[in-house]
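Bug #77: duplicate submission created two jobs. Keeping one. Sequence:
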Amino acid sequence: MHKNIEKRVAVCYNCSMQKVAVRSYAKINLSLDITGSRGGYHSIDSVVASINICDEITAAPRSDGRVYVAMCGMGSEDIPPEKNNAVKAAERFIGRFGTCGADIAIKKNIPVGAGLGGSSADVAGVLNALAKLYGVTDGEGLKAIADELGSDCGYMLRGGFARMTGRGERVCHINFGGRFYLILLLPGEGVSTARCYALSDVYPEKRHTSAAVHSAICGGQPQKVGALLSNGLYPAAVVINPSVREAFDGLLSLGADGVNMTGSGSGVYALFCDRDARDSALKKYRGAFPAVAAHTLVPEEE
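Kept job's structure:
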């Protein structure tokens, strides 16, 4: 974290000004169907779930209307402010709701470029933190800002299990009290989301499973989900980054209920309905990529 941010935040605290802290969780795609394209964007149908890897956002008010964002972890220190959607989220929040500025610090724990929604999580986390800080309860207004900054940012405001359609801005939350357990592999090199979507027209995935995944979860049959995992961006992603296929294949022998890529990659995961089975499989993994144990969750229940 930059020292100047630490100093500004400390001044706010010493003046007895309020500070808030929120967690913003990563997500995985249980399914991702490419359903068409319109106006330069691809339309999707995707079932997603939050997982227990999160970025930590703190916010303290300023009196001068300015926004300062400091990020640390996962190489985020090198992100230029003009390319940082977390900065844009804060600026648009202040412009829309007429509040004062803020000092914002983000500790990143979500791997960058892994298809886990880290950038979108930061947008949602900043909006949620500022809403909490300033008592803003306009959910539609927050989602409007989020949708402007990324297709799945609106979903990230609440997270949990959901089905996203359109560009990802249409979100239908799923009431599911169960949990899936994961082994997440993280190839070092990411995959360009824009390039992956563009190549998906050349390398399409014909298998569409979002409706079936949604039905299985809503119907209380989570054991069916593993066989239904799919990702329409996978054929394009492995062309861009062959490590994605290597990681994917490395999970196939572990006896998981299913294996899938999340987002546009490069992260892939093995899914288990049973925690002990996941833990046993993790001990057997001898592949070349970092492996992380994780599980799905509903953030509001944490």
